[in-house]
Amino acid sequence: MRPKIAPAILLAASLLAGPALAQGFVPIHHGEASRIAPYSDPVRGWRIAAARDAGGFSFCTATRGEDRNRVRIGSDGVAWQIAVVDEENRVARDGTILAVIDNRPWELQPVRVGNWLIARVPPTMYEQLRLGDALTVDIGGRLLRRDLAGSLAAMTRVGECVRRRGVSGG
Which residues form the signal peptide (predicted)? Predict the structure, then answer.
């Protein structure tokens, strides 16, 4: 089921991330319009959160790392996404990033929302994110390396969060 999105929020988001919305997903960005709340205790080193806006449920995420070394994996119930920080604007608005999981590369075309680059996860990459050991993302020449330990458990919890529309407990 596609999440409800308030028209004003949809318009604001479309101005920031039109290509993503044109592809039919809500970018997993914890922006000013979102209310973020922990969904559960951390899962194997990943912080699990649910986002809501004026229209209700938006998405759930698992985040690992701090500041510019954060990696976020999440879903809005339509698409799985991966997000990384690009504070230095190294990647052009229509540029690409290279994500490598256990020596297997994917060229991704992210949308920029603030300092975040957010890309839809291709189906072939989804299982690698869940089961892989190491992620390296080339962000315009800056290499971000992140251990994927616990990603299976974290992504399972994100899936639960999406099914429960961000309502924890029970």
Answer: 1-22
